[in-house]
Amino acid sequence: MSNCNSYSTSPQSATPSPQQYQPDQSKLKVLPPGKFPFSSTTQRFQCAPCTARDTPGPGSYAQEAVRNRKVSWPMRFGSPDWSRLPQLQKKSLRVKVSDIHQLILTDEREFQKRRNRLAYLSLYY
């Protein structure tokens, strides 16, 4: 037999890692002078950074806001006391008989919407 090996004894080359295929992106790019992106040379924050003294943490202030307010109507035996609520003024209009039902409904609906809106806004203002 001959001394010839079917396997070569040359040093084996290792498979390159994924980092060797792509350039290192973690390093800052050095741009040639005069070729900076738009407004990248100006300082981002003109004022000093905020400190803990400027921004209080949780529990360092008392908030006095009342939450979950509800409109309460003046009641009498479980139903609204209509004599104490604002009422729609009586009007006398000349209207065709066929249009009167629609006119009354429109006026009453608008009045009720306005009354409810005023009652809700009176909770906050």
Write a concise keyword list for the protein shown above.
CIMAP3; mainly alpha; cytoskeletal protein binding; 125 residues; (Atlantic silverside) hypothetical protein; elongated; 21% helix; single chain; two-stranded antiparallel sheet; 3% strand; SHIPPO-rpt
SSE topology sketch:
Blueprint (H helix, E strand, L loop, with lengths): L17 H4 L53 E2 L2 E2 L19 H22 L4
Antiparallel strand pairs: 1-2
Q: What does this molecule look like?
A:
The chain is mainly alpha-helical and 125 residues long. The chain has a domain at 92-125. The chain has helices spanning 18-21, 100-121, and strands at residues 75-76, 79-80. Strands 1-2 form a two-stranded antiparallel ribbon. β1 and β2 form a beta hairpin. The longest helix is centred in the last third of the chain and has 22 residues, at 100-121. The protein starts with 17 loop residues before the first helix and ends with a helix.
**What percentage of amino acids are in beta strands?**
under 5%
N-to-C series of helices and strands: HEEH
Major β-sheet profile: 2 strands, antiparallel
The total of helices stands at 2
Region (Disordered): 1-33
Protein name: (Atlantic silverside) hypothetical protein
InterPro entries: CIMAP3, SHIPPO-rpt
Biased composition (Low complexity): 1-23
